Amino acid sequence: MNEETPHLYGEKGKIYLVGAGPGDPELLTVKAVKTLRKAQVVLYDDLVSPRILRVCKKSAELIYVGKRSGQHSCLQDQINSKIAEAAVKFRIVVRLKGGDPSIFGRVGEEYSYLLSRGFDCEIIAGVTTGSAVAARLGIPLTHRDYSSEIVLLSGHKKDGKNSEGFRNLTCSGKTLLVYMGLNSLHTIREELLNGGNSEDTPVAIIENATLETERIVTGNLSSILEAAENAKIRSPALIIIGDIVRYYTETKELKERIRKTLSAR
Ligand code: SAH
């Protein structure tokens, strides 16, 4: 942590690094809503839906700091400075991030930067996309008959694709939740097949989870690339790999059978 001259921030002021959940405003925590309602300034990302921003008070200044606002390479530095600038001007600052800020959300970089400059910071947890998606699909992530391990992976690393993360990874008995994996789907699939996983290993991709535009594509390691291409799946999308996806397809079929039986009566 870089300990430059700390900024002597007013004693009452505070920066909250808040999780916005996956998109549906009803998945905001009570603590997030309370904090957003008192924030004087909110710095938000691409993955924060407009409906969530409506929770902020009318007078709050809303500052977009997503990918479209600058060069990707220096973006994090720019964001850090923008939060610090806002905190010099305003007493209650919210940095609003998709899902849970601690899960592939770069909250650590912001937290260290702000702390080292003497700002008072607090992280407020959010519902991460993986668990929200599981609930949407009716998937118990750790159902004892299917999976006793959950692996959260990023398809992307700071310097490119995360091929190593998938190398020699066995899917049997596990649920893989892959964030930022869509652009690396080809590589992920190759690594998992090369590592001895069966072509039948089930896969689901959920686009825009919990929003009105949510779409789901299912398949297996053999078919998923084509299925995703045919459906024109776009980011943000979460990939679930493992037998638990079979539980989803089985329960979906069961629900369909029940619906048909009931409508035939
Ligand atoms: N901190 C976030 C993850 C940020 S990384 C969290 O806890 O959920 C960004 C990735 O999250 C996206 O590339 C995508 O894989 C996933 N993601 C975020 N919102 C999503 C949504 N509404 N639907 C599907 N995937 C989503």
UniProtKB/TrEMBL annotation:
Keywords of the record: Cobalamin biosynthesis, Methyltransferase, Porphyrin biosynthesis, S-adenosyl-L-methionine, Transferase
InterPro entries: 4pyrrol_Mease, 4pyrrol_Methylase_sf, 4pyrrole_Mease_sub1, 4pyrrole_Mease_sub2, CobA/CysG_C, Siro_Cobalamin_biosynth, Uropor_MeTrfase_CS
Keyword Transmembrane belongs to the record: no
Domain Tetrapyrrole methylase: 14-224
Broad class of enzyme this protein falls into: transferase
UniProt-listed Enzyme Commission number(s): 2.1.1.107
Keyword match Transferase: yes
GO biological process: cobalamin biosynthetic process; methylation; siroheme biosynthetic process
Family per record: Belongs to the precorrin methyltransferase family.
Pathway the protein contributes to: Cofactor biosynthesis; adenosylcobalamin biosynthesis; precorrin-2 from uroporphyrinogen III: step 1/1; Porphyrin-containing compound metabolism; siroheme biosynthesis; precorrin-2 from uroporphyrinogen III: step 1/1
A GO term, aspect molecular function: uroporphyrin-III C-methyltransferase activity
Listed name of the protein: uroporphyrinogen-III C-methyltransferase
